[in-house]
Specification:
InterPro entries: 6-blade_b-propeller_TolB-like, PhoX, TAT_signal, WD40. Keywords: Signal. It comes from Streptomyces curacoi. The chain has 2 helices and 28 strands. By secondary structure, it is mostly beta strands. The strands form 6 sheets. Strands 1, 2, 22, 23, 24 and 25 form a 6-stranded mixed β-sheet that branches. A 5-stranded antiparallel β-sheet has the order 12-13-14-15-17, with no helix packed on it.
């Protein structure tokens, strides 16, 4: 373990532990990451799709807003946002939110074992500004409304079961969700300048129809210990959920959320931070903060959606910045993984890996036009490390 990780653990009052059989996973992202050489090397020249990739990686366009998905008769939605992948026999499915209002909803694309598109279809309609969300262990997609008093909708990636609104998960400006199968809770971010970080504790794991909404309680520092407190009125009216619990910690613009190995990471766009909660020691700290970069230019700004790979790497998409997806490694190095050229009026959304970890899906929400009708959804294939 690196010395700075040990020092960071001491500051947080936590201890490094062995999880998943490896020591480094226990200490992963224990200090604010610094720029360095990423695991995939430098970015190359823009390819035919305008994407700069490391050597060995290729891209293709999966879908474009307002156009039929190749090989299908389905018209892809505007403003593609949060997404996730699901195993489907020998193939897989990628789901994608639509961040428009009214309309919103979610679409899905199905792939064969070779990566060929076999179908595309709608799984949620007539909702508002569906921004991010999260995958559940029982293979549903939680689609979140990023509006005041917004809802969470539980959807079926296969499109065979009707979507269900999950009122018990609270009404606020929802952004992302991440399921924790160990503690049997779902973490939730709130996209407000004084947003909160929540968790939903279902009455029965696997059934989100009832349960308790809780909010993180902690001091104003960027590291320390935390607890959870019940939100008295999850309906958020007349008092917003973020204002109901004294001592609940404020976060500046909650965005993406990812759970792995007894930790949860979430991003805040207002201060360009990636936060990490160690759920075994109930401590929190910064995995990245662009203002704490000690040399050179911060490679990651406009932090937004986040996902992780089986190697323990975090992949963070930019809303603005230089239109990068950056990687944050378990040894606290942050570096660009890819860059989209010529789309400065857009943002990168919905990063998600195929079940085998060999393909990364994401969208440029407004594409080359800068309009929600210009969204482009991509696939990148290459030697991602396991």
């Amino acid at each position: 373990m690196e010395r700075r990780s040990l020092l960071r653990a001491a500051v947080l009052g936590g201890s490094a532990a062995v999880f998943g059989g490896t020591l480094w996973r226990g200490a992963a992202h224990a200090a604010p990451a610094q720029p360095g050489t990423g695991p995939y090397g430098p970015l190359g020249s823009p390819d035919a799709n305008g994407i700069r990739l490391p050597a060995g990686f290729t891209s293709r366009v999966i879908a474009r807003s307002g156009q039929t998905v190749p090989g299908t008769s389905y018209t892809w939605h505007n403003a593609p946002d949060g997404g996730a992948c699901y195993a489907d026999g020998t193939g897989w499915i990628y789901v994608s939110n639509s961040e428009i209002n009214p309309g919103g909803g979610v679409s899905a694309v199905r792939f064969s074992s070779t990566g060929a598109i076999t179908s595309a279809y709608r799984i949620l309609s007539n909702t508002r500004t569906n921004c991010a969300g999260g995958k559940t262990p029982w293979n549903t997609w939680l689609s979140c409304e990023e509006v005041s008093l917004g809802y969470v909708y539980e959807t079926d990636p296969w499109g065979t079961r009707a979507a269900v609104r999950r009122d018990a998960m609270g009404r606020f400006k929802h952004e992302a969700a991440a399921a924790d199968p160990v503690r049997r809770v779902v973490y939730l971010t709130e996209d407000e300048t004084n947003g909160r970080f929540y968790r939903f504790v279902p009455t029965t794991w696997g059934d989100l129809s009832s349960g308790t909404l809780q909010v993180m309680v902690a001091g104003s520092a960027t590291s320390g210990s935390f607890t959870w407190a019940n939100v008295p009125d999850p309906d958020g009216s007349p008092t917003a959920t973020r204002g109901q619990v004294s001592g609940s910690k404020s976060f500046n613009g909650g965005e993406g959320c990812h759970y792995a190995d007894d930790k949860v990471w979430f991003t805040t766009k207002g201060d360009n931070r990636v936060w990490q909660l160690d759920l075994t020691s109930n401590t929190y700290g910064l995995a990245y903060d662009d203002s704490l970069v000690t040399s050179g230019t911060a490679p990651l700004t406009g932090v937004d959606n986040i996902t992780g790979s089986s190697s323990g790497d975090l992949f963070v998409a930019e809303d603005g910045g230089t239109m990068d997806i950056c990687v944050i490694t378990p040894d606290d190095v942050v570096a660009p993984f890819l860059r989209i050229d010529g789309q400065s009026g857009s943002e990168i959304t919905g990063p998600a890996f195929s079940p085998d970890g060999r393909r990364l899906y994401f969208s440029s929400q407004r594409g080359t036009t800068g309009s929600s009708s210009g969204g482009i959804t991509y696939e990148v294939t290459g030697p991602f490390r396991a």
